[in-house]
Amino acid sequence: MKPIQAANGFSFRVGFSGYSGHLRVEPLYTEERDNPIKSLPDFVLPPAFPSETPESIKEHIKEKYLLPRLDEDAFSPEKAGKQWDFDWFARANIPLEPSMPRSIMVPVWELPFRRCKEGSTDGKWEPNSMQVDVSDIIVGGETRGSFPRTSASNDIVRGSINNRPFHPGGLEEQSLERILPDGASNGEWVHEVLNGGPAQTIPPGFKQGLNLGDLTAHPYSWNVYKDQTALNNTAVGNLSELSVQFDDLFKKAWEEDVAELDKDEGHSTESDSVKSETEANQADVLNTLDTGPSALDEILSVEAEKLDKNTDGSGQQQKEAWVVSGGSEWIADQFYELVPDMAIEFAFELDKFQKEAIYYLEKGESVFVAAHTSAGKTVVAEYAFALASKHCTRAVYTAPIKTISNQKYRDFCGKFDVGLLTGDVSLRPEASCLIMTTEILRSMLYRGADIIRDIEWVIFDEVHYVNDVERGVVWEEVIIMLPRHINIILLSATVPNTIEFADWIGRTKQKKIRVTGTTKRPVPLEHCLFYSGELYKICEREIFLPQGLKAAKDAYKKKNSKAASGGTGSSTGSSAAQDGTKGQKRETFNRGKQNKHSGPQNFGNSTGTGWGNQSNGGGQNSWSSRRTTWLTLIDKLSKKSLLPVVIFGFSKNQCDKSADSISGTDLTSSSEKSEIRVFCDKAFSRLKGSDRNLPQVVRVQGLLCRGIGVHHAGLLPIVKEVVEMLFCRGVIKVLFSTETFAMGVNAPARTVVFDTLRKFDGKEFRPVLPGEYTQMAGRAGRRGLDKIGTVIVMCRDEIPEEKDLKLVITGTPMKLESQFRLTYIMILHLLRVEELKVEDMLKRSFAEFHAQKKLPEQQQLLMRKLAQPKKTIDGSQQHLCVYCSFQGEPAIEDYYEMHAEAKEHGEQISKAVMQSPVAQQFLTPGRVVVVKSQSAQDHLLGVVLKSSSANNKQYIVLLLKPDVPTMTQTPSDRSNLQNKKGADFHQGYVLLPKSKRGLEEDYRLSAGPRKGSGIINITLPHRGAAAGVNFEVREAENTEFLSICNNKIKLDIPGLLEYGSNTAFSNTVQQLLKLKSNGNKYPPALDPVKDLKLKDVDLVETYYKWTHLLQKMSENKCHECIKLEEHIVLAREIKKHKEEVNALEFELSNEALQQMPEFQGRIDVLKRIGCIDEDLVVQIKGRVACEMNSGEELICTECLFENQLDDLEPEEAVAIMSAFVFQQKNASEPSLTSKLSQAKQRLYDTAIKLGNLQAELKIPITPEEYAQENLKFGLVEVVYEWAKGTPFADICQLTDVPEGLIVRTIVRLDETCREFKTAAAIMGNSSLYKKMDSASNAIKRDIVFAASLYITGV
């Protein structure tokens, strides 16, 4: 062959060699050059016959004898193609340098207040030494990789249970102690940090060191400037004027901080010591300086610029914002200048939010993108893939649904180096761009997969799926466990709390999150109601149109009025509802094994009102009317060019029946029919003959040829993919689907129709939420094809109310809420690593976000509370008497404890006594009582004037008021008392001298006892004054009485209540005052046991406790203190302060976490069953439980360790294992063999036993519900027959479970078999390992494991 000219003059030719005709590259002679020295080639081989020169001879000797080369005999051309083991290092004889030590000894610095000087020489502190790994002291080394490994993993993608997970990002910044210990705030350690500690004379690892004598510290001083530019502008001579000693500066700073704390609390502090003249002068210098929040903050700041940025104009420290939103409008205008060299070029102009997100990705920042469906969020994910390829790193795309993962794999396959990882598929895991489910990524993080080291981006799609009750916790776990070097991209629909969620991620990962997005839809939507064959527009561009709704209601009224005038006897809507209800009952009664549906169906809502009363019954009349409605709707949409359409229903069975009801409709042309047939033939050609003739496959093909499709979870996976792909091609005109189509398939349509606005969520029927409506309605409008998308709501029996429509159409979507919950597998994974704690995971969950966010403020409040007693309470303690001394025996605290307890018991007894029938007998007129004060002052002494009656449950009492009378009122002012029957003496009055009394008044005073009529002529409440004391007559309930006294006084009831006699009031008040004259505040009360005959056992016990406390209080020395009440108030303040401090300390502790009690209970469960020991070390049983991801970990582990599968054949074992993964609640009862029945009962008993154990240890579960929720035996017979080789068409006849759910269960069952295999290897059970291998091979065949069309293509 002719020579080929290579770069830099290196010539070679290509020839054939060997017997097989392999190509070989042969170098040729170098070409002649004018100046060979200046233009030397890169590589020159010696010619065949070179001319001999001294230089060439030297070169030849050098190459031949001085340089290492291959053995010519061993590597001769005759032996080409053979391989030998060649020891390059032995031939090269390269001197090896000693490797770095794996660990070294380093001194351990301790805080001054924690140092122990007892064992040191001369009382000087010497640091201890400890052995550390070299990798730990490298800057950033602790966060770049995972925790120390015990062994290397063979699987770099999936990881191993022997690996330790990577260090979660943000953990190292938040793992410090929350509360500073005593002595940490005195400034001694700051002094040592800035100026150096004591001289160290003992080297690390040594017991003794050199005696260097007394070492003198180097002199130092601190310079403080007014501003940042003072260093450059101040002359050298002026620097000495601003020079102060550090101790004085720190003292000044500390006093400023304390003063600021006291100012916040509303207290004023005085200096405890008098400053010297020098200190005062230095303080004056400091006062002239602008030191920001305090001089201490000035000293401790490392970078002065950072201090300026973190302080606002008032000098207060600003909180660091972890989420950044807005303020980036300039990016879109200057995008191409900011990002001149894009990692990937797009064929269309990017939107504003896409440019912002790409700019932040180029800067290496994390991004949260919130936008409507089809707005173009995937562009951000594509650019992250391109950046990973450009940077030679990896990017991971996670999706909540397997279908999305498969679709994204097909979309990205032609653009990037893409791999796919799901539960049953592993394609090209070594690729730089990996698409996987979120559960796979969580498993990789827990198992410390080595591939994590290379990941630069993790993309979370459909983040609003975090609201999912079952799987939402996975998102939180993954976000918390991601290492620091990984950046996060979150793609979500529009949610109201985007900033809040991004703030949680930023604080958790300690990195800023950029929030961008758009609320603008790429294709605007119009919303219509469809009633009686007409469309009524009710909303356009997010603006509600009431006139459209009014027109629909007018049409509804007009139609019903015609029906009523026709003499039908009932409206069409009501008859349809009745037919629907009957049809629903017949449908439920006749439900057999051929009825392929799952769960309660949305057939009848006959009792609802508003939008809920839409009949979806299964009766013949109802389905006939529904068929007419569908035909009318499709015809109207076709005429208006509004096809293709997606019709969303909320029942699999309803979708199938709706599609079958329009069997006569044909919407495709001949060319489209041909395309559909060719596509279906190619897609189903991978199935074997019997599977191609499955009833579902044949039925769906017939529908597809007419342009009608069905999509729900009951379809076979390959059938669903055919429907999705044909819909994306535009040949399917009408698609009946459940809401999973809106979540899992990126296939927009021209129109979206809602069959109903009510759904069954697994527990109850409820209206569709605004977020769910927005997600499904977002499929209307194809970007680039349609100017507007149409959303239609079907109305059959009545028109929904305006408020309901506004709520669902224009309402606020559901907020992102935490679904975090503790699982046993999470606990076991975290317990494997000492550096990770379950408490850290709980603290960083979204549920604890707000509580953790307030911790800094609570820490400051706690510091204030701890500093407060020394200045406010302690200062008052110096003046206390010897009886209530705080310095010695805490007598007043003990006395106050008894006082508070006695008060509580007394109130309890008083409440019981007042409600007892015996007490009512004592509450007669004249009985002295003590009534609770309404003004929180002293309780009021009074007397009962009138008892309660059957008609009036209230008593009339006269009470002595503690305030002093201020005004007088003459009797002439009350001359209208009898005429008006009850004047209001709100100003009070006193008894006048006899010379100034009126004739009538004098007559009344001289009169003798009178028999009253029982009429109350005074107005209640009646206030007055007598004997220099204010009194009040008012009504009171028995619950207001504090005690019933053992005294009774004489009363003039008519004079008090009928005539309002001053004399009667004066006599009554004087008698009450006499009861207080003996020094007691109140007269003694009736004995609850002796007098009131209290017989309740608990109350009697409380009574004796109360009397015992009163006796102890009387014996206490504080009882004699003349300032006892004042001291009790002070003790109450001290106790309140302690309670507040304890409450704050509790809030700052791990015990305050919401799920902490459940965590303790789950730890106890794991200990009881042997997964961990008393020291929380994971045992072999716990390691086995860590492998159980597809089923409930405790039941699976107990099943293995109880050897429940040993006596079963592989087919029987895999059939019983189907109970772990089958999810449908309602299924027909399987027909099992005796051996399978025994195994089923044995497994169920194990679940009940575990449920009882958890309930015993306070886990909030019910054993029966726990067993039924985690074990569903509906497909045991089906899986058993499938493992034995029965065709798929035959096993479908054994159950009423839809074919799609059968396939899904068996596919997940294969993953369970792999997990059991790994567990058997850990346990050392070789027979179980082989059995699981055989079981996995038995179920992996035919249509169940047919490859996805998205992966293999058609």
Which tags fit this structure?
alpha/beta, 1354 residues, 32 strands
In short:
The protein has 1354 residues and is an alpha/beta fold. The chain is built from 54 helices and 32 strands. The protein starts with a strand and ends with a helix.
Written overview of the protein:
It comes from Hibiscus sabdariffa (roselle). Residues 607-620 have a biased composition (Gly residues). This protein is of the alpha/beta class and 1354 residues long. The protein is 42% helix and 12% strand. It has 54 helices and 32 strands. It has a nine-stranded mixed beta sheet. Strand 30 (1022-1026) and strand 31 form a beta hairpin. Helix 14 packs parallel to helix 15 (378-391). It is globular and about 140 Å long.
| Total DSSP helices | 54
> Nearest-angstrom radius of gyration?
44 Å
Task: For the record, give the distance between the C-alpha atoms at the N and C termini, rounded to a whole number.
Answer: 44 Å
Low-pLDDT parts are 1-10, 17-21, 29-34, 36-46, 139-153, 173-183, 226-251, 253-318, 567-620, 870-880, 966-1009
Q: Approximately how much beta-strand content do the residues carry?
A: 5-15%
Specify the structural class. Answer: alpha/beta
Name the strands of the widest sheet in spatial order. Answer: 8-16-9-15-14-10-13-11-12
> If you average the pLDDT, what whole number results?
76
Keywords: ATP-binding, Cytoplasm, Helicase, Hydrolase, Nucleotide-binding, RNA-binding
Biased composition (Low complexity): 571-580
Biased composition (Gly residues): 607-620
Pfam family, one: MTR4_beta-barrel
